[in-house]
Amino acid sequence: MADLKELIIDLGDVDEVKRIVKDEIGSGKEPTKIIDQVTEALTEVGKRYDRGEYFLSELMMAGIIASEVSKILEPLLAESKKKATSKGKVIIGTVKGDIHDIGKNIVIMMLQATGYDVIDLGIDVPVEKFTETVRKEKAKVLGMSALLTSTMYEMGKVIEGLKKEGLRSDVKVILGGRPITKDFADEIGADGYAKDSVRAIKVVDCLIG
User: What's this model's pTM, rounded to 2 decimal places?
Assistant: First the structure.
């Protein structure tokens, strides 16, 4: 049998990946162990991306493969998730005016795979939706994504909205997306920035830890 981790790293055939996952489940392998393999694979994909060996398209493909694995495992993990201790709650969304979600969805999948409860607000999310959800859900982290330079400034509006509602000190804010830089994140008062999904997990771990 082909190695699941290596197959994902090498961006193998999705149907082959799904077959292996089902075979591993059939042989009694714990779903959490399979998630560990996926996480390790995505971490290696991220390293290759950092080294310039892989590009955004490869990073996205790895995320798509991992999402297909998650769909198979989700029913099996439902009960164990209820019993497990969550690492924390994370709210995430793409800001108003922006409808891009592939990067956001990859981050969500990795957050869930590493033990976080994620509330996905989707795309084109207005300031009020972010602040209302922070108030209601009492999440530890708020993640915002933008792919367009024309929408990235919405992130600053959300942070100002949190301040206005007296919520800013209650939640850590992390930013991501193609046009976002650390300098921009610092400029608008965010707590963290991640250029890709692998770093996003490390930053969230650090902010919560």
Answer: 0.69
CATH code assigned to 89-208: 3.40.50.280
Give every strand in the sheet of 89-94, ordered side by side. Answer: 117-120, 89-94, 141-145, 172-176, 192-194
Residue 52 DSSP code = T
What's the rounded mean pLDDT across residues 38-47?
A: 83
Taking residue 124's Cβ as centre, other Cβ atoms within 10 Å add up to 17
Q: Which run of H or E residues covers position 143?
A: strand 141-145
Q: Does domain 4-83 correspond to CATH entry 1.10.1240.10?
A: yes
What is the rounded CA–CA span in Å between residue 144 and residue 109?
Answer: 15
Angle at 121 between CA 143 and CA 15, to 5 degrees: 90
Whose structure tokens read 């029913």?
A: 75
